[in-house]
Amino acid sequence: MKALSEIARDKEGYLLNTQDWRPELAQALATEEGLELSDQHWEIIELLRGFYQEFEESPAMRILVKQAAIKLGKDKGNSIYFMRLFPPSPAKLASKIAGLPKPLNCL
Asked: What is the CATH number of the domain that holds 82?
């Protein structure tokens, strides 16, 4: 099992190979970002990874919120919920922790 320092990442810290991801790595990435992962975080991480598996891209914020509303309910399908979990840029940060590429339309 490779340590975070041994995993190939781009200059922003995103994994270069999504196959390198595992839950322990998500924990290390979250710690690096100053986050402690709760069950709510893991729910979003799993949602993101499922979306990526199906569409082969990381969802931008609007799509991520819409997917959360559909799959997790309206109380979790809103941008305020995401901002509380993954500040300051939820789609980018959640994708990074989920081991996925940066969403295309995120700066």
From this structure: 1.10.10.370
